[in-house]
Amino acid sequence: MKKVLSFDVDQTLNVAKTPITDEVAKLLISCLNNFEICPISGQKFDQFLIQIVDRLVDNGVKPAELTHLHLFVAQGTQYYRYVPTGDTYNPNDWQQVYNFPLTAEQVAKITAALSQAAQELNHWEEASLAEGDEIIENRLSQVTFSALGQKATTEEKYAWDPDHKKREAIVARAKELAPEFDYEIGGTTSINAFVPGMNKVFGMTHLMEELNVQKSDILYFGDMTQPGGNDYPVVQMGVQTITVRNHEDTSFALRGILGVL
Question: Where would you tag: which of 10, 21, 143, 181 has the fewest CB atoms within 10 A of its CB?
């Protein structure tokens, strides 16, 4: 029997960049009583709270249950766990276990490469950004290009690059400009850039170390499991993986898993 259920976030647990549904939240709470639950995504910590944790709280999760939720941020190059100090949820009870940040020089090189690549290819959408939004974001252990920023509508994001061709072209050019870094396509408009090896293999390896489990103990869910997708490294390392199209697929699988316990 598996001990760990691990999930990509966007398009696996939710509609991209939106909070998980009540149904997904309730299923995850049930899973917390049977498994260690480990979301791993390129998103920053605050987004994990907004999109996952706050919705679990809305649906009645208990602090003791949250001790079985492990947040592997920025592809697992940052790890947060919940250490309750009382009987009610307190967002300040999240503790960072580790963080492997990029240097300022590395951030600058990646930012310059992604900016130049997108502008050369006419995929730089600054004019359409909402006030205060940004296309390139320093997430400490990775730099993320989000073509339309974080505040664009879901419909706009889905329509921008459905076949990944725009981002594939940006990645190819950025790799020419800054070849010392790796670039992965994720979500609907994103590219994650990082030091080689700091992808989900890094995150899953540390997950196993922190939770004292083996590959055979883990079941992973992701929507980008094809070569070049940000879930593909998990497939390559031999972790059993379920490929999903959306959160509805994930919900269906979780109902099946919980139904046989």
Answer: 21
Cα 53–chain centre separation:
14
Rounded distance between C-alpha atoms, residue 147 and residue 167, angstroms: 9
Average pLDDT over residues 82-90: 97
174 with 44: CB under 8 angstroms? no
| Torsion over CA: 228, 231, 236, 240 (sign) | negative
Which CATH code fits 4-99+198-259?
3.40.50.1000
pLDDT digits over 144-202, tens only? 999 999 888 888 998 999 999 999 999 999 999 999 999 999 888 999 999 998 989 99
CA 165 to chain CA centroid, Å, is 21
Boundaries of every domain in the chain: 4-99+198-259, 104-194
Helix axes of 22-32 and 247-259: crossing angle, nearest 10 degrees: 40
pTM for the model: 0.86
